[in-house]
Amino acid sequence: MRYASRISSEAHRSVMRKVSAGMYEYQAEAIFKHYILYVGGSRHVAYTCICASGGNGAVLHYGHASAPNDKRVNDGDMLVFDMGSSYCGYASDITCSYPVNGKFTEKQAYIYNAVLSANRAVMEAAKPGVSWVDMHHLANKVVLSKLLDIGLLRGTIDELMEHNIGALFQPHGLGHLIGIDVHDVGGYLPHCPPRGTLPGLKSLRTARVLAENMVLTIEPGCYFIPAVSSC
């Protein structure tokens, strides 16, 4: 898994160096796949590559058959690239986001750093004995606090958390177990906490208390989805 993750990280950096405005999303996917095989000897990806640009970044699990990484990338677009290799049967899963022209606008940088702060907060807090549900709430709290700071939301952080407003900006779960399968087994076992029922929480792929040697992804996000934000 360390090797698969290292090769995938290098492949993402290769894409970052080569992608440019005017290319198609699938060309970024091709760069990634070429690198993991040509350099890393990894013949397979662990899941369908997500190469979203511009508004496509708000489409969860973009890149599938009905949204096939076929948009032309425009100057100024933010990219959300979620790709990982599989090596000797073990998966990796890496998501990164950056502007195609290499220059963040003020707004892009703010949201990027809000999500980065959530990622780092969870990285620091996650340890054996901690509930994964609590980590999901922590990520939402960090992002909502940042949105409050710039006036995008009103109220208090406690009110926003009580009403589950975080699910409007992060409609998916924080992350998942990973191993032989990219969404590995063991998320919900008979003796473990059940799946939540609220938006966001019901998308969590595990509600377990973390234990030593568990391997999970940490994937907070902040999406501005037109169908949601217009409600």
Structural class: alpha+beta
How much is the average pLDDT? Answer: 96
What distance lies between the first and last C-alpha atoms, to the nearest angstrom? 42 Å
State the helix count.
7
Helical proportion? 25-40%
Low-confidence stretches: none
| Rg calculated over all Cα atoms | 18 Å
Q: What's the total count of β strands?
A: 6
- Which sequence of SSEs, written as H and E, runs from N to C? HHEEEEEEHHHHH
CATH homologous superfamily placement of the largest domain = Creatinase/methionine aminopeptidase superfamily
What does this structure look like?
By secondary structure, the protein is of the alpha+beta class. The chain has helices at 2-18, 25-38, 106-125, 132-149, 157-162, 166-169, 226-229, and strands spanning 44-45, 50-53, 78-83, 85-87, 90-91, 94-99. Helix 1 crosses helix 2 (25-38) and helix 3 packs antiparallel against helix 4 (132-149). The longest helix has 20 residues, at 106-125. The protein is globular and about 45 Å long. Its cofactor is Mn(2+). One of its GO terms (biological process) is proteolysis. Pfam families: Peptidase_M24. This is Xaa-Pro dipeptidase-like.
Question: What's the structural blueprint in terms of helices and strands?
Answer:
Elements: H1 2-18, H2 25-38, E1 44-45, E2 50-53, E3 78-83, E4 85-87, E5 90-91, E6 94-99, H3 106-125, H4 132-149, H5 157-162, H6 166-169, H7 226-229
Antiparallel strand pairs: 1-4, 2-3, 3-6, 4-5
Helix pairs in contact: 1-2, 3-4
